[in-house]
Specification:
alpha/beta; five-stranded parallel sheet; two-stranded antiparallel ribbon; binds adenosine monophosphate; binds magnesium ion
């Protein structure tokens, strides 16, 4: 039986960067994971249906449509065997409020061993978003980012209650990427 690790964190915190670094270290140790991007699974369906052109438009869709795409993505990812990392979000900030990234019907499909929350100081996240030209990041103040990270910790506790998974916080602070990478490798090893 492979391991399933779900990686979460607010947009711009650097989840993908930390995971990529950790997988490089583990490769040399003969530990391998397949990385699945939840948003990409959703986007593939949404794009085929012609309802979005950009992955950052999905969180603005009607809530029921987001949930339908979310369920489709979870069912597809559940088919993957072996060690799997799922790159996603503990919650999505939508125009009508926080939407659970891993509601009961998603967790039932994925049943993770561990959920990782990649976090850092809200001011650092704000600056990272402002300098990321590749994405349509929401313009949000540091108070909103702090609130989102707080909400993610709360909802992660609910996820652990439902699945029995462990919850790991990893700090990805400025100039300390190596430390975050090492902590991530330790979770995956
Ligand atoms: P990302 O590239 O990780 O920022 O994800 C792109 C988009 O995919 C997000 O803004 C969400 O709209 C969507 N998404 C990713 N994971 C989930 C999830 N677990 N539940 C709902 N939507 C998600
Ligand atoms: Mg990412």
């Amino acid at each position: 039986m492979g391991r399933r690790v779900i990686i979460t964190g607010v947009p711009g915190v650097g989840k993908t960067t930390v995971v990529t670094g950790a997988l490089k270290i583990l490769e040399e140790e003969g530990v391998s994971y397949r990385t699945l991007n939840f948003g990409t699974y959703m986007f593939d369906v949404a794009q085929k249906e012609g309802i979005v052109r950009d992955r950052d438009e999905m969180r603005k869709l009607d809530k029921e449509i987001q949930k339908r795409l979310q369920k489709r993505a979870a069912q597809a990812m559940a088919q993957e065997e072996g060690n799997v990392i799922i790159d996603t979000h503990a919650s999505i900030k939508t125009p009508t409020g926080y939407l659970a990234g891993l509601p009961e019907w998603v967790l039932r499909e994925l049943m993770p061993d561990t959920i990782v929350l990649v976090e850092t100081n809200e001011d650092q996240i704000l600056l990272r978003r402002l300098t990321d030209e590749t994405r349509s990041r929401d313009l949000e103040g540091s108070y909103g980012i702090a609130e989102h990270q707080q909400f993610n910790r709360s909802i992660a506790a609910a996820y652990s209650m439902y699945t029995g998974c462990s919850i790991k916080y990893i700090t990805n602070a400025d100039f300390l990427l190596d430390k975050a990478v090492e902590n991530m490798a330790a979770v995956l090893r």
